Write the C-alpha cells for this entry.
Amino acid sequence: MTRLKAPAGLVAPVAARREHISYHHNRTLSDAYHWLRDPGYPQVSDPQVLAYLADENAYYTAAMAPVAQLQEQLFTEIKGRIKEDDAAVPWREGAYEYRWAFATGAEYCQWFRRPIGTEDWCLLLDEVVEAEAKDYFRLGGLSINPDGTRMAWSADDNGSERFTLRVRDLASGQALTDEILQTSGNACWDAFGKGFMYTLVSPEWRPFQVKYHRLGTPVAADLLVYEEPDTSFFVDVHLSSSREWFILRSGDHVTADIRIVPAAAPATPAQVIVERVSGRDAEAEHGQDQFFIRTNDTDRDFRITCAPTATPHEKHWREVKAGGRGHYWRGIQVFKDFIVLEDRINGLDQLLIIHGTDEHYVRLPEAAYAISAGHNADYVARHYRFGYTSLVTPQSVFDYDVVERSLTLQKAQEIPSGYDKQAYQTERLMLPARDGVNVPVSLVYKRGTPLDGTAPTHLYAYGAYGAGTEPAFSAARLSLLDRGFIYVIAHIRGGDEMGYGWYEAGKLHQRTNTFNDFVDVARGLCARGYASVGNISISGGSAGGELMGAVLNQAPELWRAAVLHVPFVDVLNTMLDDSLPLTPIEWPEWGNPIASADDYALLASYSPYEQIEAKEYPPMMVTGGLNDPRVTYWEPAKWTAKLRATKTDDNLLVLKINMGAGHGGKSGRFERIEEISAEYAFILMAFGIDQS
C-alpha cells in the first residue's frame, strides 16, 4: 500500500524546541513545545507563535493544492444537496408564529414572526446584515418578552463563545441602550417583560454568575441572583416550560444542584430545591403546578420524580418513573395537559407520552433512527414536535397529536440534486471488544458496494461525556458513499448509547475502554469482511480528536488516513493547568493529576501527546481554532509539531488553524461545506481517489 506523501519539493514547517520542565508527584514532565501556548491567552499576540501558525497554514494550502479541483467538485455536489432557500416549519409562541429562513446564496438566516391567523411575515433579525464584514458570526440566543414588544438577542463575532447581549424594540426596530458583554448567550425574560436573567462568563470563560437586568437601568447595577464559587462548576439558567419559574442549575459532569426563582418576582432570593450531593446529577422542569426532577439519586440510569410547586424540596418528591429495568431516562418536557419523557431502551430512543392516566410510546416508522426535540414553546399545545432521521432517511419534522396518537409530517429535508433512499443500505452490528463486551456499530453504504474488504471504509466515533453518536443522515456523507465508501459509526463506551453505565465504562480509570473499543471495532470489521487493515480512514473531533490521537498511537497500521478536528490531545498538560476554564470542571471526567498521583499516572499512560513515538504514522489532517475556548489552539499545534519531529515516516501531515474561529470551525453554512470538502478531499487523496 502506497502512503500519501507531501508534494515533491514542499518542505514542512519545523517548530523550535524549547525545553520546559515541570515536576508532579516526584515525576518529571518535559514539554519542548510548551512555548506555543501564548501566555497572554485568550489574546494571542506572540509574534513567534503567530508566525509558526502562519507557516503551518501556508504549508496546508500548498499540500492540498493537488486536490483543489476535487475539493471544488466536492463543494459543488455537497452544496447541490442543500436547499438554498430553506425555511423552518413555523412554531407557535404566545400570540405569534415564528420561523427562520435562508435566502438563496446566503450564508446566514433571517428570523421572522407573524400574528397567529395572519399571512405576512415581519423580519425580526437579519443575520446576514449582522454578520456583514465579519469573519465569524454566531447567533447565541433570540428570545421575545411575553407581550411581544422586545427582543433580546446575542452574538459571538470571533468564535470565543463570549456573547454580547442586546435588546431591540420590535415596534420601531431600534436597538435599546441595554448591552451586556461576556455572556453565555441566553436571556430569560421575567413574567412581565420588564427584564431578563442571563449568565456571565469569567475572564477564563467559566459561566459563573446569573444576573437579572431590568430594561433601561445601568448594567453595572444588575442584580446578582447567584454566583458559583466552585471553579469546577458551571451555572446556567432557563425558563421553565410553564414560564412561571427561572430554573438555575449549577454542576460539573457528575454533580448538580438546582435553585428556583419566580418569573413574576425575579428579585426573590433563589430557593434550593435540589441540594448538592457529590455524584448526584439532576435536571428540573415545571408545569401542571409541579416540579419534575430527573435524577440519578437511586439509579445510574436516572428516575423521574415530581413535587408540588409549594413544597418542591426532595423530601416531598414522588416517583413518576423508576430507574433501571432497561430504561434510561434522558429528558422531560411538560405541557399543560401532557408530559413527554425521553427514554432510551436497548440503545434506541423512545418518546413516552403521559396524558392524564394514559401512557403510551410514540410509534415510529423505522427500526433504527435518531430523534431530537423540536420547537415546543407553546405550553398549551396538544401536539409534540420532534426531529427524526436515520442513516438513510433525511431529516424530518413531525408533530405528534397526543389525543389522536397520530404523526403528521411537517417537513422532510429536500435534496435538490436528488436522492434515492432505496439506493443505500444500512446495517447494525454488535462487534466484540477485547474484554468481551459487544459494541454497537452502525453502517451505511451504497447498494452494490463490495463487502469483501476491498471497499474503502471510513470509521467515526466520539465516545465521551455521555454524548452518544446518533445514526443520523448526512447529505455531505453521500459524497463518500457514492465513491464506494462504507461509512461506519462505532458507538463506543464513553457515550451513552447503551445507558449511563456505558458512559461510566469509558471515563476516568476506564477511559482506555473507549480507545480499545474503537480499535477492536476496526479489527472486527476486518474479520467480518467489511474492511481490511490499512484501508480504513478515521475521523473525530474535540474529545473524539483525543480518541483519534490514542488509536493512532495504539494501532497506526490499521489506518489509511486520519482527520483530527480541534483534537483534545494534550490531555495531561491541560488537566494540570487549572487556570484554564474547562480544567476544573473536567476533572470528574478525566481525573485530577494535580491532586492524585494515580490520576497523573493514568493520564500520562494514554495522553496522545505524551505517547507519540518514533514509528510510522498514517497521513493526517489536523485542525484548530485560534479563539477556541474548549480545546485551545496549542493542542493541535503542539501535537503536529511533536509528531513531525518524532515520527519515522514521510507521510503527509497538515495543520489548519482557523485564525478567526473557535471550536465549531467557520460559521457560515457554505463555509462549513468548504471545511467538509477539504476533509473529504484529503481522505480521498489518501486512498488515491483523486478524480471527481
